[in-house]
Amino acid sequence: MPTTKSQLLNNLNTNFGRLKPVGIREFDYKASAIPGIIKLTLGEPDFNVPEVMKKAAIDSIENNDSHYAPGSGSIQLRKAIAKFMADRYGLTYDPTNEIAVTVGATEGIYASLSALVNPGDEVLITTPTFPLYMAVTTILGGKPVEINTSNDQFVLTPERLRQVIAEHPNAKAIILNYPSNPTGVTYTREQIQQLATAIDKTNLVVIADEIYSELVYSGHHTSIAEFIPGQTLVLNGASKSQAMTGYRVGFIAGPQELMKPVSAIHAMMVTAAADPMMAAAAKGFASEEGKQATLEMKAAYKQRRDTLVPALRELGFEITNPNGAFYVFAKLPERFGTDDVKFATELAEQGKVAVIPGSYFGAGGSGYLRISYATSMADIEEAIRRISQFVKED
């Protein structure tokens, strides 16, 4: 095996040294090695890809659809996405120049931030949140500004937003992820409209990661792009709503002038998404079968949530209502203190249930656990039994 020439280590991107350890995948990897473990760790739907989408991918392969697609994605998929955005959220995007298909929403995050962030630029990020936003901002030489929302039930209030904007008047962008990973909390239409009003008075670009938009259990998801479309980049995809995580199909939608550099950077990174995967996603976004499959999954997730949340509350965990996604962000009972890493480690090793420490998600996450219910009801019921036994034996 080759050994890196030691002097070369001085040539690495110095921003790597600024990265905070994330630990989610590492924690999951270690917990996976424990015999008999029940994993409530990753945001990985346990459903299979619906048949209509699988058939579309197979047909694409059999039809030799194996050449370079346009950088922004197949026009078939972009038209399907435009239809999806109009049908679900009342948003109008031109599929020719206002939508780009990405290799998952993850690549969309990188492409969007790369088009905006110069060294030293500040990016406002509500926390607790998906750690990739802070990591990508840091790698690009930007400065993440964490807005801790834990004292406001994990919702960014317009008053707090105006305060942060006043403190950071030169911030380049703000990232809003709702429904939220890790909290499951989302915003009402009125709350989003109030945030939009505050942002409209600024030159902030909003990166709205709405990958869980189809998984709202009470009410309806409202995109902030409805109110301030001229300064919003919407990220979404097929991973969560269609259980297509392995197909890696996401998208970015926004005004043409913003999308031009975003699409260019996306194309430089990956050229284009894979044709068969795009054919499958097009069916998911535009067909009635795809819509019904999502509704069936959502109903199952809601049933799991409604089983898990009251059981955890009964055991002394505090939980802010998770009205979206498939996560519960549970505050440790007071007697366990705030060392969520210690608690999660012991729960995995002794209780044989794996969850993710809340401190991995930034400011406001210490003393919490992220618990995913994207797994079977049988596993959830057994996990509740094991967690109950673990906390009662302490």
UniProtKB/TrEMBL annotation:
InterPro entries per UniProt: Aminotransferase_I/II_large, AspAT/PAT-like, NHTrfase_class1_PyrdxlP-BS, PyrdxlP-dep_Trfase, PyrdxlP-dep_Trfase_major, PyrdxlP-dep_Trfase_small
Chain ranges of the Aminotransferase class I/classII large domain: 37-387
GO biological process: amino acid metabolic process
Protein name: Aminotransferase
GO molecular function: pyridoxal phosphate binding; transaminase activity
EC number per UniProt: 2.6.1.-
CDD domains xref list: AAT_like (cd00609)
Enzyme class: transferase
Organism name: Limosilactobacillus vaginalis
Keyword rRNA-binding: no
Family: Belongs to the class-I pyridoxal-phosphate-dependent aminotransferase family.
Gene3D superfamilies: Aspartate Aminotransferase, domain 1, Type I PLP-dependent aspartate aminotransferase-like (Major domain)
